[in-house]
């Protein structure tokens, strides 16, 4: 009123404000969140690589979130490159059309060590060998445990040395690096500048490279997730055929649904009910993330032996959503390879035009002979008018597997191999 507002209008405004105060805070809160959501959506739409790199950096201490973020990057067509001492920064960064892992994501590698690595790289350029790396990174920050973690995380792969070989050579390389740094500190300079120093001064040990499964297990150990592949990659054709759900879509479910999921059993915990019977909770991991599973006593008694398997499994159960998330009550568990055999009625090979198919049959027959089993094989031949299915002879019965699919895929194309 003192500012010239009519009394009737001022009273009306005051009354409206008094009523609005009952819920006005919620509206202002929603408006602020809406602005943040809009800006976030804009950044993700117009700067997707920068946005996902920032998100991965924020989530780097939560393995489950990082797995989901990497899966989203894959859906967006953004490759996520593994850590590399010659390319990585401290955090996740954009590298061309890709995102590069940050070095601080590696277990046992602290920020002081990362700073020392970056300083060594800045001073002398890219590291050229394992010994060159140990010589140029200040030894106060570089210990065997951290260096071994870098090896396991594939951060030293670019130095032209296998991971098993690098692990075997670590002690000698670290000792050589410490000696040279101490010699330099005493004033005895090297004949070579950092750029001119020889890449190797000691022969590398001859050791067999780690098997793929072990390499992936070590990546999981030091990063919390896989970067160079996934144990389920070789089983995707079977999983697409047998499973109807993955962990990412499971998290979005509402209500109750019957699901079949394929993955690896992790973090199983067995406990005893009040009635004295045993049950279990475990985590099922797939390429998209993880899902919580519960085995009640009757199911536990039937399938408890599979809780320790390292092989992929197929889990069937009822998924139920609640405020705490989605939980799957398990009804059955079986090895994925066994599930594939039990559910496959026939295999169909699409050989293309009938006139050209004959030339492929000899090679196809050799592959089929290496995988004997009980599943019949049909050849799909393309004639001018239509496609015809031809039942193969009794000698053409196979045992379905990923290796069979891979071998046939090389001959006729992966898209031409079907199991029904």
UniProtKB/TrEMBL annotation:
InterPro entries: DnaE2/DnaE/PolC, DNAPol_HHH, NA-bd_OB_tRNA. GO terms for biological process: DNA replication. Residues 259-336 form the OB domain. It is an enzyme of class 2 (transferase). Gene3D superfamilies: 1.10.150.870. Coiled coil: none annotated. It holds the Pfam family HHH_6. Residues 77-166 form the DNA polymerase helix-hairpin-helix motif domain. Keywords: Nucleotidyltransferase, Transferase. Its EC number is 2.7.7.7. GO terms for molecular function: 3'-5' exonuclease activity; DNA-directed DNA polymerase activity; nucleic acid binding. The keyword Nucleotidyltransferase applies. PANTHER family: DNA POLYMERASE III SUBUNIT ALPHA (PTHR32294). This is DNA polymerase III subunit alpha. It comes from Tectimicrobiota bacterium. The gene is dnaE.
């Amino acid at each position: 009123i003192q500012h010239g507002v009519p009394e009737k209008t001022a009273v009306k405004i005051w009354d409206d404000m008094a009523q609005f105060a009952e819920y006005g805070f919620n509206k202002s809160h929603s408006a602020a969140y809406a602005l943040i959501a809009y800006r976030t959506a804009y950044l993700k739409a117009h700067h997707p690589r920068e946005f996902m790199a920032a998100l991965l950096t924020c989530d780097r201490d939560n393995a489950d979130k990082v797995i989901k973020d990497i899966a989203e990057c894959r859906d967006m067509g953004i490759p996520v490159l593994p850590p590399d001492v010659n390319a990585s920064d401290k955090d996740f960064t954009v590298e061309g059309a890709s995102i590069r892992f940050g070095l601080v994501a590696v277990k046992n590698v602290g920020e002081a060590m990362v700073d020392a690595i970056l300083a060594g790289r800045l001073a002398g350029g890219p590291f050229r060998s394992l010994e060159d790396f140990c010589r140029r990174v200040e030894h106060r920050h570089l210990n065997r445990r951290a260096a071994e973690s870098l090896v396991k995380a594939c951060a030293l792969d670019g130095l032209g040395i296998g991971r098993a070989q690098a692990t075997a050579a670590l002690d000698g390389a670290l000792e050589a690096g410490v000696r040279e740094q101490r010699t330099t500190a005493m004033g005895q300079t090297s004949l070579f500048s950092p750029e001119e120093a020889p890449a190797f001064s000691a022969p590398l040990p001859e050791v067999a490279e780690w098997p793929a499964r072990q390499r992936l297990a070590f990546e999981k150990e030091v990063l919390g997730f896989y970067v160079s592949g996934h144990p389920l990659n070789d089983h995707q054709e079977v999983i697409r055929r047998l499973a109807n759900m993955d962990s990412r879509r499971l998290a979005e479910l509402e209500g109750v649904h019957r699901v079949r999921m394929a993955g690896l059993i992790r973090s199983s915990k067995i406990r005893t009910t009040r009635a004295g019977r045993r049950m279990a909770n475990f985590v099922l991991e797939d390429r998209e993330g993880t899902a919580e599973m519960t085995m009640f006593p009757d199911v536990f008694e039937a399938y408890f032996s599979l809780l320790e398997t390292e092989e992929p499994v197929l889990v069937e159960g009822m998924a139920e959503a609640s405020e705490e998330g989605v939980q799957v009550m398990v009804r059955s568990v079986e090895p994925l390879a066994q599930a594939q055999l039990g559910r496959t009625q026939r295999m169909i090979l699409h050989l293309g035009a009938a006139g050209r198919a004959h030339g492929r049959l000899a090679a196809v027959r050799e592959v089929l002979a290496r995988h004997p089993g009980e599943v019949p094989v049909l050849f799909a031949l393309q004639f001018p008018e239509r496609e015809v299915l031809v039942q193969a002879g009794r000698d053409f019965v196979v045992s379905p597997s990923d290796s069979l699919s891979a071998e046939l895929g090389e001959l006729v194309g992966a898209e031409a191999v079907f199991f029904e």
